[in-house]
Amino acid sequence: MFVGLLGSFEVRLGDRPVTPSAPKLRTVLALLALSADSVVHLDQLVEELWEHNPPGSPSTTLQTYVYQLRKLLAGAYGPVEDTLPNGVTLLTRSQGYEFRLSKDSVVDVQTFETLLERGRRALDGGRTEEAAQLLRDALGQWRGPAFGGITTGPVLSARATHLEESRKSALELRFEADLALGRHRRVVDELAGVVKAQPTHEGFSAKLMTALYRCGRRVEALEVFQRLRSEFVAQLGLEPSLTLNALHQSVLTDDPALVLPASTVRIAAVPAQPEPEPEPAPQARPIAPVTRLPLPAPEGTIAQIPPATFHFVGRHNELALLTELIGAAATDDRHGLRMAEVTGPPGVGKSTLVVTAAHHVRRSFPDGQVFVDLRPVNDGAESLHEVLAGALRSAGVPLRPGQVTAAEIAYSFRSWSAERRVLVVADDVMSIGQLDGIRPSGPGSAMLVTSRRRLHCPGAVSAIELAPLSISEGVQLLQAVLGEARVREEREHAAELVGLCLRLPLVISAIGGRLAYRRRWTLARMRYRLAADPGVLLRVRTGGATLRDTLVGNYWTLTAQQRAAFLAVAAQDEDFVDERVLAELLATDTMDAEELLEALADSYLLEEVMDLVYGSTTRYRITKPLRLIAAEVLRPARGCQSEPVLQSGFSPSSQARASLVDDSDEAVVDHGPAGRSLTG
């Protein structure tokens, strides 16, 4: 038997896949396999499956699940019994269940942890080459986030956090071994990506400085230290550690010791002299076949996808859907472009999901992966032509000097991609027209699009609207940032804090980041601060901009009538509004009011709720942060000539109604029918 938990959940008996499809069965089997050859207590299973809301007879329900697992694992081999094929056994104990595996069975978590420990001992014992290979093999066990496709409860969530920390530890040790072997040129680019994802991790920054220095890039090594120091001073009012400052001084003075691999600086306490390594115990179970890391990409290969985050929580179904949909583009006989649109409110983690999915499928696109960040366009810092031309030139697309029109850029990219299989990731798209210049035309190509408004892209084969995380997922993310022990001590306050962060992963990460640097602050103190001043959330940076800036940007892409409708809704004391209330406020008919509310929901300036309590009617809700946006930022626009509708009132006409559905100077996107969600 093979059980894969470090990535998408996978179970095989020989060559036969036996992965359960039912969510509860997947959770039970994962927990049993994680604790293979030991008893999993009934209380632990109940907590994992139902947490604080178990059914009336949880033990009876668990018996049913175990019977179904035995039936699934037995398959065509014979009757449903405790002993399953190939010596695998699922035993009922007095206090729970025990999943015994045969000697030739493999659980990738056990393989990873065994290889990591062996690699650590080899490195401490001076066997650097052996350590590098063992650690590389350990990291090769990972195929994605731990427990992918499994609905996790408190037990598996805590274990996932622990495994992610172990993964980072293995990566840092592997970098240390490679640097000691003089492989600085091989690891410098990978280190740069890891430091970008973990900007305050001193160990990774120290190794990047060392690698850059040995590559003859001394100025860049010093810049790494300056960026880290600025981050520390701004967040903590502290200087980096003495060890890192010593490394910085060594780079400044061209210390000859830095050139020697044996003198690589380590950000860790110097271990005691290791005792002679004992003879290895006989292996009770073989190590899983190692997935070797891919060889470095050949020179000229396009690989522009940003690094994936270590703290990826939830989104298992969405990730699986994108991976299956986009990854299948390369083998599809049809020539149409596979395009997926991912939308959601600012801070909900759209870019994180898409980048993670892109890394999962990158091998399906051997001719390159192109990344286009349209935030500078939407912020007004650069023109669309400049951003597209810069992205495509860096990808090697031949553009003539002076070629600046959108049509010329589009024609050149189509010609270049016609015989190539490429993946294009377009981040922060605000109108369909922004995509025209970067649609690949080659068969087997694909495109991932993120937007903070519903685009309703023509030709999109899938549209995913990300919702905020659940409370339990938000707490899991907080644990990943702050550590399990600190969150466990204030579990109740952690849940409330996640709710005050609107369950938005980027906001939770940012608030958690502040707490990580303020060790004396309790979660209760931060919860009180957010409850007392909701404006704190607006000042949180998500993806380089504050949440306030992003929401204001969404507001200014609306038409004048839509902006007037938003301010009218924000001026009401009630949080909920429907088309009849808005029609009365604006002195217009309900059809126009409904179109305006749908447009605001498309831009995530209102939450759209289909409330079953009120006869399945649709209502719209405005949140406290959006009320603050209206009160603190937008109200001064009442006297501006750009907002005549606020002074003269709303006077609908056929032309005004048409502006709600046509792309024009003011309405930058198509507003199709808004998607609805059921609540209540």
UniProtKB/TrEMBL annotation:
Single GO molecular function: DNA binding
Domain of life: Bacteria
Bilayer-crossing regions: none
GO biological process: phosphorelay signal transduction system; regulation of DNA-templated transcription
DNA-binding region range list: 1-101
Disordered: region residues: 661-680
Entry keywords, A to Z: DNA-binding, Transcription, Transcription regulation
Entries under CDD domains matching the protein: BTAD
OmpR/PhoB-type domain segment(s): 1-101
Keyword Transcription (UniProt): yes
Family: Belongs to the AfsR/DnrI/RedD regulatory family.
Protein name: OmpR/PhoB-type domain-containing protein
